[in-house]
């Protein structure tokens, strides 16, 4: 309202002239700083406000950086908005960046972004944390949970249960020839959503159940549960994916454009509302688990998952078998906000990477039938020996060829093709 009153008072034409003058001044200042920058590196010429976003086009980030590497070499610079990023594509260049000593000047993963603060994800968790002390603090609690043997044992058991349930859905939806056609990308992301959320919270989202019920309905088959009962499952699944897009949006789109370009207001509102909904659901999980822990008698064991581990850490109900005190500031329980930051980041980091790796494995097995045949031979022999026994960690260590395939595909087409470091020197 104030802006419209100002435009009305000075006139539309004068407003246009003022706005045009500001753009010209900003553009001149931008290019003056660009051409007089210290230690210039090769790279595409950035545009004011947007940097090299337009130059990227519709390429995935990995494809874009590979194209830039071929054009400018193993070290080049690109801009997201007014923020400069130096891209390194050679082992010798990045070796020093992975020095984990306390004196390293590359401890921070990313710099501070105002956009991440607006989205309320800056300084939370690990990956998006620019505060080294808070990063160490959060990593300590996540490591305690993941390094505990019970976590690995539990994950194997739960994965088997989920696979068996999924196979029942395949039987329910198979056609007259006994086949069940499904979208492998959609399926893998739903599957890992259920897996990761259950590993971390001990509670199911039912994303895969909602997915298959929708497929069964589309094929005129009876679903196992009313779709209305699973609306939150689909919404939770989509909310995590929207949060990832929102993080990229608030990093790449400069604050000036977010603030003064009205056509982006709906997009910003969508991401903020999605964040509020997702965070409220995670807060409900945390409060529910705190009550469960509080009312569980001391002589009864608590369920084991990452959420319970973080809520009970350094309390009388601590469930972690791995107990160590490496820093003075870690000897205190986590707050609900800190737990929430670690949880949503675990969802985001674990779901997409695991699902994408699985789809890469399927792709390469289809591309190399000889490898697929050898893999089947190993699995057939393994399950024949296993009989009616359940899988455990010791059994998995016998799948040597299977493990080799996964590691080789991970090397060729890693789900996380780039990693960031921010110099504090």
TrEMBL record:
The keyword Transmembrane applies. Keywords: Membrane, Transmembrane, Transmembrane helix. It holds the Pfam family p450. GO terms for molecular function: heme binding; iron ion binding; monooxygenase activity; oxidoreductase activity, acting on paired donors, with incorporation or reduction of molecular oxygen. The chain crosses the membrane at residues 6-28, 240-257, 343-365. InterPro entries: Cyt_P450 (IPR001128), Cyt_P450_E_grp-I (IPR002401), Cyt_P450_sf (IPR036396). Coiled coil: none annotated. PANTHER family: THROMBOXANE-A SYNTHASE. This is Cytochrome P450. It comes from Rhizophagus irregularis (strain DAOM 181602 / DAOM 197198 / MUCL 43194) (Arbuscular mycorrhizal fungus).
């Amino acid at each position: 309202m104030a802006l419209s009153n100002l435009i009305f008072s000075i006139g539309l034409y004068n407003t246009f002239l003022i706005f045009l003058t500001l753009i010209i001044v900003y553009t001149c200042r931008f290019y003056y700083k660009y051409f007089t920058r210290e230690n210039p590196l090769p790279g595409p010429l950035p545009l004011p406000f947007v940097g090299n976003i337009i130059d990227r086009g519709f390429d995935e980030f990995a494809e874009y950086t590979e194209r830039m590497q071929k054009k400018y070499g193993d070290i080049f610079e690109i801009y997201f908005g007014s923020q400069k990023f130096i891209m390194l594509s050679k082992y010798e260049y990045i070796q020093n960046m992975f020095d984990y000593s306390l004196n390293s000047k590359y401890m921070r993963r990313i710099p501070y972004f105002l956009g991440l603060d607006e989205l309320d994800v800056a300084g939370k968790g690990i990956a998006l944390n620019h505060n080294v002390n808070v990063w160490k603090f959060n990593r300590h609690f996540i490591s305690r949970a993941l390094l505990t043997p019970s976590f690995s044992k539990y994950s194997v058991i739960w994965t088997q249960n989920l696979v068996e349930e999924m196979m029942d859905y395949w039987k329910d939806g198979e056609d007259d020839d006994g086949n069940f056609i499904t979208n492998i990308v959609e399926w893998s992301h739903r599957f890992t959503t259920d897996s990761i959320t259950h590993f971390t919270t001990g509670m199911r989202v039912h994303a895969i159940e909602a997915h298959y019920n929708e497929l069964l309905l589309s094929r005129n088959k009876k679903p196992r549960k009313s779709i209305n009962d699973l609306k939150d499952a689909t919404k939770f699944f989509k909310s995590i994916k929207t949060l990832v897009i929102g993080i990229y949006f608030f990093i790449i789109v400069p604050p000036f454009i977010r603030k003064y370009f009205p056509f982006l207001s709906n997009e910003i509102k969508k991401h903020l509302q999605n964040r509020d909904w997702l965070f409220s659901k995670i807060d409900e999980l945390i409060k529910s688990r705190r009550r469960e822990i509080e009312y569980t008698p001391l002589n009864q064991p608590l369920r084991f998952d990452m959420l319970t581990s973080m809520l009970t850490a350094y309390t009388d109900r601590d469930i972690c078998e791995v107990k160590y005190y490496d820093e003075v500031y870690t000897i205190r329980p986590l707050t609900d906000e800190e737990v929430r930051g670690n949880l949503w980041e675990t969802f985001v980091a674990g779901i997409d990477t695991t699902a994408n790796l699985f789809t890469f494995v399927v792709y390469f097995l289809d591309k190399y039938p000889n490898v697929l045949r050898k893999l089947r031979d190993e699995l057939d022999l393994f399950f024949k020996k296993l009989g009616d026994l359940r899988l455990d960690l010791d059994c998995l260590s016998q799948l040597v060829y299977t493990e080799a395939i996964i590691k080789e595909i991970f090397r060729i087409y890693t789900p996380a093709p780039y990693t960031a470091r921010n110099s504090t020197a």
